[in-house]
UniProtKB/TrEMBL annotation:
InterPro entries: PTrfase/Anion_transptr, PTS_EIIA_type-2_dom, PTS_Nitro_regul, PTS_SugarTrans_NitroReg. It comes from the Bacteria. The gene is ptsN. It comes from Shewanella corallii. This is PTS IIA-like nitrogen regulatory protein PtsN. Pfam families: PTS_EIIA_2. SUPFAM superfamilies: Phoshotransferase/anion transport protein (SSF55804). PROSITE patterns: PTS_EIIA_TYPE_2 (PS51094), PTS_EIIA_TYPE_2_HIS (PS00372). Residues 1-147 form the PTS EIIA type-2 domain.
Length: 147
């Protein structure tokens, strides 16, 4: 998977959202700003629906919120580095400071799973995670994850 095909530079953000809800709203707003055919509300509802099934916090301060939308034709990603970790109901009960959010077309279940797996693998690389956490701005965050 070539990350640059699903993650736009404008969808990498260093931010201080404060809560799980606020970070999901931030993700939704970033996507809606880059993809005008999508409303931030429909994106938010898709991500929130998945979170209600169970937290996407995978541990080690990392979450991979994701959802499906029938109104998109290709996967869309957002990377957020929280300047202050947020409670996220992660499996290790630790707050989250790195989120890789993913939206996929409703009918592309296999691609969805493959993309999630590839991102989880990338985020299991301690060196990449360390660099992401050191990123000082949005451009550096994007550079690190797409290197």
């Amino acid at each position: 998977m070539e990350l640059r095909t699903i993650l736009q530079p404008e969808c990498a953000s260093c931010a201080t959202p404060g809560s799980k809800k606020k970070v999901l709203e931030l993700v939704s707003n970033l996507i809606a700003a880059q993809y005008p055919t999508l409303s931030s509300q429909e994106v938010f509802e898709s991500l929130l629906a998945r979170e209600k099934v169970g937290s996407t916090g995978i541990g080690n301060g990392i979450a991979i919120p994701h959802g499906r939308l029938s109104s998109i034709e290709h996967p869309i990603a957002v990377l957020v580095k929280c300047t202050e970790p947020v409670p996220f109901d992660a499996i290790d009960n630790q707050p989250v400071d790195l989120l890789f959010a993913l939206l996929v077309p409703s009918e592309q279940c296999q691609e969805h799973l493959a993309t999630l797996s590839a991102m989880a693998e990338k985020l299991s690389d301690k060196q990449i995670v360390k660099q992401l956490r050191k990123a000082q701005d949005d451009a550096e965050l994007f550079r690190v994850i797409t290197a």
